[in-house]
Specification:
By secondary structure, the chain is mainly β. It has one domain. It has 1 helix and 11 strands; from the N terminus they run E-E-E-E-E-H-E-E-E-E-E-E. The strands form 2 sheets. Strands 1, 2, 3, 4, 5, 8, 9, 10 and 11 form a 9-stranded antiparallel beta sheet that branches. It has a two-stranded antiparallel sheet with strand order 6-7. The longest helix is centred in the middle third of the chain and has 8 residues. It is globular.
Length: 179
Amino acid sequence: MGNTASSGKPKSVSGAVYIAPKGSTLPTDASTALDAAFKSVGYISDDGLTNAMGLSSEEKKAWGGLVVMSTITEVTDEFKFTMISPQNEEALKLVFGDDNVTISSGKLTIKKNGKEPVEHAFVFEMIVCGKAKRIVVPQGKLKETGDVTYNDADEVGYEVTIAALADSNDNTHYEYMTT
């Protein structure tokens, strides 16, 4: 693959983050067309996508201070992005819940409440080193939302953090890249 430095650009400016119901058919490479269940959440802010991967461990020492054992105590995997298509139905359903977003007869109604978010499958598509890269989260759940700002200078956006949960193989996400 080489030692090339690169940035991560969206594969498509108008769609780089896709969401589908949990259990949908997942891609297993970086280039096969996505299953029709996956829908774009629209534009993502120029902050792009952040993957916060955490690993914590606890060390045990012998008398005298020598480390003799290290045990993993926590593994986290989260994805953060801001959706800036404020009328995109999929984006709104992610933030507010499927049952809380209604579009009918040209009217949009959103209900904000404390209902538990449901799990979804996520796909993030980008270009890295001129190659297609796809990150697949089989089971992701909305963990946090950020402030929504309405002013003259900034786009209206919904900042979200998605917790990637372990699937039946104990994996939180998969990464695929063309060579």
